[in-house]
């Protein structure tokens, strides 16, 4: 089923509605939301993308993220995505920033893929354990909880890997708690991006606004 999204000019002028696959094929500007959960002011929850996805399979990324649907508000998109992908509700989300992002790549299938987006970053406190999350079955292989102090060390090159509790899909298809080693190469990043300049650079602002500083 086609997923329709609003598309814009580079300057932000609304120009119509398009299928999201068409938007990515032809580089049409659109909007996405990225939702970050901070747990106990000590850890940051990343999703693990499904290995079955055509784009960036198996990579660690924001707790939840997705396209803003046609006619949908940014706030509604945030609440929908966070519940669809985690199965939990959050309270008092805070917008951290929104800014343009563009990246061109070629998928394993040989098809061109163009991310021309304005992405809206939100964060929220939620102290529920990972065992209470319900990963979206068709898009996610689970969630990983990263200690913020160790995450900074990993981003700054002080350590090569870190241990992290995780709720992951098992061979049976069910989700279960486990522990994994996480390295910088596990994260969704493109050419020129690092943990330091893609994720860690705004984490202090997130913690401050959530009164975790």
Structure report:
This protein is an alpha+beta fold and 213 residues long. The protein has 4 helices and 11 strands; from the N terminus they run ββαββββαβββαββα. The strands form 2 sheets. Strands 3, 4, 5, 6, 7, 8, 9, 10 and 11 form a 9-stranded mixed β-sheet that branches. A two-stranded antiparallel ribbon has the order 1-2. β10 and β11 form a beta hairpin. It is globular and about 45 Å long.
Quick overview:
By secondary structure, the chain is α+β, with helices and mostly antiparallel strands. The chain is built from 4 helices and 11 strands; from the N terminus they run E-E-H-E-E-E-E-H-E-E-E-H-E-E-H. 20% of the residues lie in helices and 40% in strands.
Question: What layout of secondary structure does this protein have?
Answer:
Blueprint: E1 4-8, E2 14-19, H1 20-26, E3 30-39, E4 43-49, E5 60-61, E6 64-67, H2 74-86, E7 94-106, E8 112-125, E9 140-147, H3 148-155, E10 162-169, E11 175-182, H4 195-209
Parallel strand pairs: 3-8
Antiparallel strand pairs: 1-2, 3-4, 3-6, 4-5, 4-9, 7-8, 9-10, 10-11
């Amino acid at each position: 089923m086609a997923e329709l999204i609003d598309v814009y000019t580079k300057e932000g002028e609304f120009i119509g509605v398009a299928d999201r696959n068409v938007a990515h094929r032809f580089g049409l500007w659109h909007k996405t939301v990225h939702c970050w959960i901070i747990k106990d002011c000590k850890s940051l929850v990343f999703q693990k993308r499904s290995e079955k996805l055509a784009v960036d399979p198996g990579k660690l990324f924001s707790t939840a993220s997705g396209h803003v649907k046609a006619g949908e508000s940014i706030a509604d998109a945030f609440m929908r995505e966070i519940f669809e992908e985690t199965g939990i509700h959050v309270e008092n989300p805070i917008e951290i920033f929104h800014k343009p992002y563009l990246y061109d790549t070629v998928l394993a299938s040989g098809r061109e893929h163009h991310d021309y987006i304005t992405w809206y970053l939100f964060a929220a406190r939620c102290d529920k354990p990972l065992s209470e999350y319900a990963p979206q079955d068709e898009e996610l292989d689970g969630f990983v909880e990263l200690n913020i102090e160790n995450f900074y060390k990993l981003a700054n090159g002080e350590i090569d890997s870190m241990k992290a509790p995780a709720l992951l899909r098992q061979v049976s298809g069910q989700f279960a708690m486990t522990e994994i080693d996480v390295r910088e190469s596990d994260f969704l990043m493109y050419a020129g991006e690092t943990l330091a300049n893609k994720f860690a650079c705004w984490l202090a602002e997130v913690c401050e606004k959530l009164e975790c500083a």
